[in-house]
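Model it.
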Amino acid sequence: MSEEMSINVEETVEPSSESVFRYLGYGSSLPSAPVLRKLRELGPKVPALVQSMTLCRICSVNEVTDLCSKALPAPIQGASFLAFGLVTVGAAIEQEAKRLRETGRLLDSVILNALGSATVSELCEQTAYRVFGWAEERGLNVSRAFEPGSGASRWPLDNQHLIFANLRAEQIGVELTSHLLMRPHNTLSFLMGIGTEIEQASAPFSCQGCQRTDCQYRYEPSGSSP
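Modeled.
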């Protein structure tokens, strides 16, 4: 069996201040007063630039295209089901950030890019929690989300091919380039394992397990499991 979820999110996706600060490279520190002023100025403009789209497919491992079980992350090699996820906030926000950069408004461009990254990250987390709910309704466990190329996932970037082979990315206007980059820029992909043999994750996304403990973008929600 398989289940596909493709939705155009109508409600506003609002990232937390902490998430935006992290994408600006401040870690757990507070930005300077000028940056905070710019955030207050640019933040309200983000909803008009965002088109939140998600695509999620949950299917039996027997229905997966181009699957080599050994290529899966070790914690989910015994999964009965796999959840493929793809989320984007569209191209408008990166286009506006580019316009600001080209007109000399570099700080505005950097901050708008951080707002875009934080927004798509929040959307991705919402989508992953939908998978948590799907599994819970069926009495199954679900793993954390594994992102191709992520340091915490330690799952090679070329596994983007597996995700895109099992989703119709064109439905939400996303494409994978020959260099394994996703377009639009503010797009994220992930894979989760589901089944009775899977260890239940406490949260879908965490940098726990990544060896770059000094990374300014590090994110470890309380109680998260690797």
